[in-house]
């Protein structure tokens, strides 16, 4: 059966789209063939949260935030979708909250309840809204600012009363002092403003920096794992035992060389005693003479002929020149 070109193009297009979707999900960190559960949580405010932020129980990451969307048109609640990557039992009366910090990114922390029934795929967690770190700082500083404002007003009244008792020059100095205090108070209020203050911007910059660290946490963990494997491999090479063995060998060699230099033993005497060398040289010369004499007058030492004539020549007193050269 002949397949038309349109059918081939359509099939190739469908396969390409399928691989494109699978590759996109793989690059987002989703495992293609791993089944995971989806649960939900509703919050009034999700400031600081981002997609792919962690969801933890007792500090253990069990999932990530997949998406965030408005639960209704009035945006009274925000629905957070959580992808559970670990197969854990979460009691139905567990409570989720958003935790933020200066040196860590925001996470959803689940406090486990004591119910015997557990959440299933598609269930919604109970939530509680916690006050953020910046809001806590602002709440703690607001009473101080109010007290400072009341103190400044009281001080202003006191200065006006005291100023009426002095000359105009002194009164003008008190007025300038009050103006400076008012300017300083306004600057402090601007610094502590939750939305546009310098402190708020600095905290947001720190939060952004820590968020980037959290996103690269996998790469940092892999680098530390490689470093740990390298250090473990070095520790398994028994470098300490090898160095100790080398030191022991060097010590023994040093002891042998010391004995040789001190004329202790045969090797030391052979190297340092000149008489022993001369005796060895004399013995070698006598052996050469004997061998030359045996070669020149063999009948003097071995006579196997019955009717042979006995060699009556005298023995050699010096080695033959060729033999002497070969012996030396």
Describe what you observe in this structure.
Mean pLDDT is 75; it is low at 323-328. The protein is elongated, with a radius of gyration of 49 Å. The chain starts with a helix and ends with a helix. The protein has helices at 5-27, 133-163, 168-192, 198-215, 217-236, 239-261, 265-272, 274-296, 321-327; strands spanning 37-43, 54-57, 60-70, 78-84, 95-99, 107-111, 124-127. It has a 7-stranded mixed barrel. The protein is built from 9 helices and 7 strands; from the N terminus they run αβββββββαααααααα. It is α/β, with parallel strands linked by helices and 328 residues long. It has 5 domains: 1-33; 35-130; 134-192; 195-237, no CATH class; 274-327, no CATH class. The protein is 54% helix and 13% strand. A hairpin with a 7-residue loop joins strand 3 and strand 4 (78-84). Helix 2 packs antiparallel against helix 3 (168-192).
Helix and strand topology:
Layout: H1 5-27, E1 37-43, E2 54-57, E3 60-70, E4 78-84, E5 95-99, E6 107-111, E7 124-127, H2 133-163, H3 168-192, H4 198-215, H5 217-236, H6 239-261, H7 265-272, H8 274-296, H9 321-327
Parallel strand pairs: 1-7, 2-6, 5-7
Antiparallel strand pairs: 1-4, 2-3, 3-4, 5-6
Helix pairs in contact: 2-3
């Amino acid at each position: 059966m002949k397949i038309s070109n349109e059918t081939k193009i359509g099939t190739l297009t469908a396969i390409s789209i399928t691989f494109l979707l699978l590759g996109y999900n793989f690059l987002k960190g989703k495992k293609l063939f791993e089944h995971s559960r989806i649960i939900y949580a509703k919050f009034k405010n999700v400031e600081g949260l981002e997609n792919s932020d962690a969801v933890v129980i007792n500090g253990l990451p069990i999932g990530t935030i997949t998406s965030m969307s408005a639960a209704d048109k009035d945006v009274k609640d925000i629905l957070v979708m959580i992808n559970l990557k670990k197969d854990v039992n979460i009691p139905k009366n567990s409570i989720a909250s958003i935790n933020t910090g200066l040196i860590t990114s925001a996470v959803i922390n689940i406090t486990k309840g004591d119910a015997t029934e557990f959440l299933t795929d598609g269930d919604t967690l109970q939530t509680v809204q916690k006050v953020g770190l910046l809001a806590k700082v602002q709440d703690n500083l607001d009473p101080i600012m109010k007290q400072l404002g009341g103190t400044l007003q009281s001080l202003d009244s006191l200065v006006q009363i005291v100023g009426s008792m002095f000359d105009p020059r002194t009164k003008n100095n008190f007025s300038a002092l009050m103006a400076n205090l008012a300017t300083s108070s306004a600057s402090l209020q601007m610094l502590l403003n939750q939305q546009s203050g310098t402190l708020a911007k600095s905290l947001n910059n720190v939060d952004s920096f820590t968020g980037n660290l959290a996103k690269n946490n996998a790469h940092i963990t892999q680098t530390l794992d490689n470093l740990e494997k390298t250090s473990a491999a070095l520790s398994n090479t028994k470098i300490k035992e090898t160095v100790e063995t080398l030191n022991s060998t060097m010590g023994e060699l040093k002891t042998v060389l010391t004995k040789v230099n001190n004329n202790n033993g045969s090797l030391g005497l052979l190297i340092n005693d000149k008489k022993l060398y001369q005796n060895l040289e004399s013995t070698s010369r006598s052996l050469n003479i004997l061998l030359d004499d045996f070669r020149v007058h063999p009948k003097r030492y071995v006579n196997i002929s019955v009717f042979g004539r006995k060699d009556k020549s005298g023995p050699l007193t010096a080695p033959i020149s060729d033999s002497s050269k070969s012996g030396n």
